[in-house]
Specification:
Layout lengths: L3 H10 L4 H17 L3 H24 L6 H24 L1 H4 L3 H13 L5 H31 L2
Helix pairs in contact: 3-4, 3-6, 4-7
Length: 150
């Protein structure tokens, strides 16, 4: 059975045996190799993009552990990720770029990690500016579509 407390202490203290470091390096290389195949690459990239941020969103919805700032940070991440995925689908980039899912995993990490605040940078400098500028036109178009379908 894996002792998580002991494992956490080893990571914090950077106290690994050469065998453990070899196992970690081998696992990393295997995952990197598998990520070059579209199925596994997309799976890994989606896990990185969704699993941990979704769990953190679940925690932020609990008012005891997540405040307004944390919820705002997560909403910015989800909006940025959604727009990133729309452009990915429209451009058909995965079919054109070799090792695309490795790049996407790195981009997703950059978007999410609090140290880089990538989603906030993209949102404040691109998405927010474009949507603010076109908000009236977008609202009008949505209203026309809704009225047409009634």
């Amino acid at each position: 059975m894996i002792d998580l407390k002991r494992g956490k202490e080893k990571v914090q203290n950077k106290d690994f045996t050469p065998k453990e470091l070899g196992t970690l390096a081998g696992t990393f290389i295997l995952l990197l190799y598998l990520a070059t195949y579209p199925f596994f690459g997309r799976l890994f990239a989606d896990i990185i993009a969704f699993v941990y941020p979704a769990y953190k969103s679940f925690q932020a919805l609990n008012y005891k552990t997540g405040g307004y700032d944390k919820r705002k940070e997560l909403l910015i991440y989800w909006v940025t990720l959604a727009i990133f995925y729309v452009f990915e689908a429209i451009s058909r980039t995965p079919e054109k770029v070799r090792l695309y899912y490795i790049y996407r995993s790195l981009i997703t990490l950059w978007l999410y990690l609090p140290q880089t605040r990538g989603a906030e940078i993209i949102y404040n400098n691109v998405i927010r500016v474009v949507l603010k500028h076109n908000q009236e036109s977008i609202d009008k178009t949505v209203k026309n579509i809704v009225n047409k379908n009634k």
